[in-house]
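S., here's the first fold you wanted:
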Amino acid sequence: MAGDITTIARPYAEAVFTRARESGRLDTWADTLATLSAIAADPEMAEQIGNPNVPSERLRDAILEIAGEEPGSEVGNLVSLLAVNNRLATLPEIARLFEALRTRDQGVCQIQVLSAFELEEDARRDLTTALEKRLGAEVEMTVETDPSLIGGVHVRIGDLVIDGSVRGKLRKLATELQF
């Protein structure tokens, strides 16, 4: 399901990023999207967004009022577009993707690493160095532990996935053997 929302949110995030970069307002848009994301993620607002009986215009107006934005502004237009297309629930993902684009534009790649075991500092440093060399960019790496990987690591760099886990290799073997 997370992949579905990312697929839906990506074109919006890319469009907002392009517009923000053109207008020189990357930081302003990042702050605004963080605010909109927090509003949409609020449990009470999320409940209203998920309620098909609440008119999209009412949701749009509520979000813009809370955010302090005017309808007709660029932010107002984005929220209106999302409301009309029943996409307000994607605001947190749009904000996350926008931030990833902004970080990448600054020459930094955000990387998520899942490891079967806790990575020691030397292993983290070696992995960071190898990824910086491969990507040709500075790397910001977050590492989480997932024992279900059995062994190895699972690396996610945006849409690129490098699965060096034992679980991933077993799945690949099962697919090849048609299990």
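And the second, which I think is the more interesting of the pair:
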Amino acid sequence: MEKTGVARALISVSDKKGVLEFARGLSSLNIEIVSTGGTAGLLKENGIPVVEIGAFTGHPEIMDGRVKTLHPRVHGGILAVRDNPLHREQMAQNGIRPIDMVVVNLYPFVATTSRPGVTIEEAIENIDIGGPAMVRSAAKNHRYVTVIVDPADYGGIATEIEKTGGVSPLTRKRLAAKAFAHTASYDAAIAAWLAKVYSDI
């Protein structure tokens, strides 16, 4: 496993802490940023060049944002084995461009369900689907892709890219393990809350 450069990053975060500085740093290194919804709007408002997800996939966000990143041009770009000739051929045939970094944190399910009087409908709408799918895709393919779920990692990753031109295998492995722990904890919180709520029905 070799150090990988980063030419394109997909950023889609609910917790916006530190994302402007991080995205600005990536952009200054000529890294293309693809983004979704509110994250894309925030980056654009602050003068950071961004490709909106609909332009990247060729398909608009639909169903109140429930469906936006669940697309082959997203997951193909993340999951492709870069040195597999068949994968490269299929990428070319389907207009799939590689995504080298995935920066995602998830809808605030725990914070939402901690509010007094929260409804089941509100809780359900805060169950993230596309976010965990992208995190898991990137973590699975950490041989080639860097996945970041914690804003606390932004500074270190930005510095590593700036100093070395890429992200080391050791860093990608560490971040992949952290990403799977993040999605596991997220799903466990959802399962526990639903079990509690539905036990009273």
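Why I say that: Strands lie at 8-13, 32-35, 51-52, 101-105, 146-148. The longest helix spans residues 169-198.

Talk tomorrow,
H.
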